């Protein structure tokens, strides 16, 4: 009997090899090769277009299809203005964080435009209906379908011609074109490819729910994120009320746009004023600073907290939550070198972005510096002061984008002063006192 052919694929970049490799030679990822069965014959994917010849780009007309609103304002903004017919959206997040809840609420609103096909490969119809009763999403146009075969799912979609298709989850479905087990690298890739082709052919908006790994990335090959049009991640602790939906990729709108929701028994509710909600429990104690951040096109006021505590151990701890720990270490080195009198060799330092958010923009630097200096000196930052700015390795305070938008958000929330990079000061037109700063050694003198 002939031995079954086996190949190994990298889950990060999709490279293939005939034997297992500890390190991928293409992307240098470690322990990323997974076994899969070699295809018996080359598959011929269905063409997306009937055109057989290339066309001059100038002769191709505009195809500005009207977007379909989900009737959830913040989600529409994250999607770039609403759903695009034929777009495939991948939604990832930890178990229990609210992916199925949000998409059931989206299905309720989209059902006003026609039938919505909700396919589940993990739960029974009674389980989904129980959640739907709790959420109040019982529209008669929502059709539940428990199936894992992609071919049967698409046959049902051809019959119903739904307004949207929701697949929960992509790791549970399989296509007959591949003999691998559901959830394998090849099955996830091929199933997503078949669904993507059908979405374009039928002009059908498709939502795919994706599991995530222990590292926090969507399970399956990295090519899965390249196949789809939009990638949304749920962020936030599942034991906290706030949930952040962030667009990491969007072919039809800006990336890094965020929507903030609050989890209740009745489902996810939009937070109408995220800045006010995030700083509602702000502390007036030393070690707290208010940062005017920018997530996508939305300005947010966020509390940055720091705790500088003496240690008796030879290696002091450096811990950061919501911010890159390496960035905190870099800022501490700049403070020790450029700000006279700031020494942290005998101190544990903990930095936290309150509210469970993860911020990676450079404007966070000045917030971390202010919070650390405030905790070290045991002097609180003024309650009516907000700030933003990037700190360079030489101690200079560098400009950031959209300074006036940040300042207007701070003024709207009652802040009377804002500490900004000197080069950004002339761009601010908001009704707020602007305090420009050039170097990190001047920050302490201006704050305390």
Question: What topology does this entry show?
Answer:
Layout: E1 6-10, E2 16-17, E3 33-37, H1 73-78, E4 88-92, H2 99-110, E5 116-120, H3 125-135, E6 142-146, H4 150-160, E7 164-168, H5 185-202, E8 206-210, H6 223-227, E9 230-235, E10 242-250, E11 258-264, E12 267-270, H7 274-278, E13 288-295, E14 298-310, E15 318-321, H8 325-338, E16 347-353, H9 364-377, E17 385-387, E18 390-391, E19 397-398, H10 403-412, E20 417-421, E21 433-437, H11 443-447
Parallel strand pairs: 4-8, 4-9, 5-6, 5-7, 7-8, 13-17, 15-16, 17-20, 20-21
Antiparallel strand pairs: 1-2, 1-3, 9-10, 10-11, 11-12, 13-14, 14-16, 18-19
Structural description of this entry:
With 448 residues, the protein is α/β, with parallel strands linked by helices. The protein folds into 3 domains: 6-37; 69-272, P-loop containing nucleotide triphosphate hydrolases (Rossmann fold, 3-Layer(aba) Sandwich), CATH 3.40.50; 276-447, Ribosomal Protein S5, domain 2, CATH 3.30.230.10. It is 25% helix and 25% strand. The protein contains 11 helices and 21 strands. Strands 6-5-7-8-4-9-10-11-12 form a 9-stranded mixed β-sheet, sandwiched between helices. Strands 15-16-14-13-17-20-21 form a 7-stranded mixed β-sheet. Strands 2-1-3 form a 3-stranded antiparallel β-sheet, with no helix packed on it. The longest helix has 18 residues, at 185-202. It is globular. The N and C termini lie far apart (81 Å).
């Amino acid at each position: 009997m002939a031995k079954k052919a086996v190949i190994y694929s990298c889950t990060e970049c999709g490279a293939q090899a005939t034997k297992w490799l500890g390190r991928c030679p293409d992307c240098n990822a470690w322990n990323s090769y997974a076994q899969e069965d070699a295809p018996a014959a080359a598959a011929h994917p269905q063409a997306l277009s009937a055109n057989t010849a290339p066309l001059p780009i100038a002769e191709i007309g505009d195809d500005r299809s009207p977007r379909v609103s989900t009737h959830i304002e913040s989600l529409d903004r994250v999607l770039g203005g609403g759903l695009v017919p034929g777009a495939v959206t991948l939604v990832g997040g930890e178990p229990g964080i609210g992916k199925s809840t949000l998409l059931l609420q989206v299905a309720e609103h989209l059902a006003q435009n026609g039938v919505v096909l909700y396919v589940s490969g993990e739960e029974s119809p009674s389980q989904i209906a129980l959640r739907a009763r709790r959420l109040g999403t019982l529209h008669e146009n929502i059709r539940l379908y428990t199936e894992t075969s992609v071919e049967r799912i698409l046959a049902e979609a051809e019959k119903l011609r739904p307004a949207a298709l929701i697949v929960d989850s992509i790791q549970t479905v399989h296509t007959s074109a591949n003999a691998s087990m559901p959830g394998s690298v090849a099955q996830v890739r091929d199933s997503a490819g078949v669904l993507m082709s059908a979405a374009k052919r039928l002009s059908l908006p498709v939502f795919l729910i994706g599991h995530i790994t222990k590292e926090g990335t969507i399970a399956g090959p990295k090519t899965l994120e390249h196949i789809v049009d939009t990638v949304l991640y749920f962020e936030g602790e599942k034991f906290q009320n706030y949930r952040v939906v962030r667009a990491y990729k969007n072919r039809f709108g800006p990336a890094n746009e965020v929507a903030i929701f609050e989890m209740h028994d009745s489902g996810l509710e939009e937070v109408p004023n995220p800045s006010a909600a995030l700083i509602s429990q702000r502390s007036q104690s030393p070690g707290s600073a208010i940062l005017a951040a920018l997530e996508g096109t939305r300005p947010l006021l966020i509390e940055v907290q720091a705790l500088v505590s003496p240690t008796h151990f030879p290696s002091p701890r450096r811990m950061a939550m919501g911010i890159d720990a390496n960035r905190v270490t870099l800022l501490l080195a700049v403070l020790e070198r450029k700000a006279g009198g700031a020494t942290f060799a005998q101190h544990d330092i903990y930095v936290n972005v309150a509210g469970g958010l993860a911020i990676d923009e450079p404007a966070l630097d000045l917030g971390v510096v202010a919070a650390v200096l405030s905790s070290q000196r045991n002097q609180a930052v003024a309650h009516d002061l907000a700030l933003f700015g990037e700190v360079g390795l030489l101690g200079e305070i560098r400009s950031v984008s959209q300074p006036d938008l940040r300042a207007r958000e701070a003024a709207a929330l009652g802040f009377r002063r804002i500490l900004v990079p000197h080069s950004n000061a002339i761009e601010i037109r908001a009704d707020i006192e602007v305090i420009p700063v050039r170097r990190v050694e001047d920050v302490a003198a201006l704050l305390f």
